[in-house]
């Protein structure tokens, strides 16, 4: 993908000055947004589309919505989980994971819930998911949380109501795939396309979202009262305290921060905006990778900083290559 333009994406002089700075950098903070996963084919928050086109995703991403109709909210998230699992981590996710293994003083704060950085084996202790993850499952009543559960669907009733089921290449969950098939065949849904990759976008106006009652949904194994729910941060909820504390402590401990990488995000919203400012206060130079040249973080950028415009999956491995290849 895009290999033909590879060498021309990053201007030679800027690549050289960045590599030199990266080589000397100890404390590095990366902020990731939807743009890094766009190259893996994942849409941004507007949601999975298709079946959900008539639903405003923001109206489903709240504790109130879950309280009102947990079955509907779970189906929305089941769909997003399925799409995220069909996507693969790209070269940018892998390059950052490798940089983390090389440099224990490098931490990444991701606003993405898509599980692509964990699936690229980014070391857990150096990856902070400020908006949680579609693949963390937690209780709405107690503190129970189960991380990196990639089962799809999480329970058979949450299979996506569409025809043309495709076994998911990302899991070996035969039981799940068979259950999905059984559910689909019992539903008599018509498919307009059976092509892999298109099945999530079948025209859906006529496909009803099945009604799923709360007693069909997974219960908490700890308290047995609560319902399990997706471990993402919903509108009106606090960001995960442990995660924020871990990043705060890392910043507080650093005498100097050398570099802040801002990848696929404008970093204009809390907490990303604040972290860019705090990093630059501690001396960090800024490197932005973004498709849109106007998508800049809320700091004054100078000639010393870097703005690499384009596809993160091409640019990130390119700018990290020299340091990653060094033994
Ligand atoms: Zn519980």
TrEMBL record:
Signal peptide: none
Record-listed Zn(2+) binding positions: 139, 142, 220, 223
Domain Deacetylase sirtuin-type: 8-326
Domain of life: Eukaryota
Keyword rRNA processing: no
Cross-referenced Pfam families: SIR2 (PF02146)
GO CC annotation terms, alphabetical: nucleus
Keyword Iron appears in the UniProt entry: no
Matches recorded under PROSITE patterns: SIRTUIN
A GO MF term: protein-malonyllysine demalonylase activity
Chain coiled-coil ranges: none
PANTHER family assigned: NAD-DEPENDENT PROTEIN DEACYLASE SIRTUIN-5, MITOCHONDRIAL-RELATED (PTHR11085)
Protein name: Deacetylase sirtuin-type domain-containing protein
Gene source species: Helicocarpus griseus UAMH5409
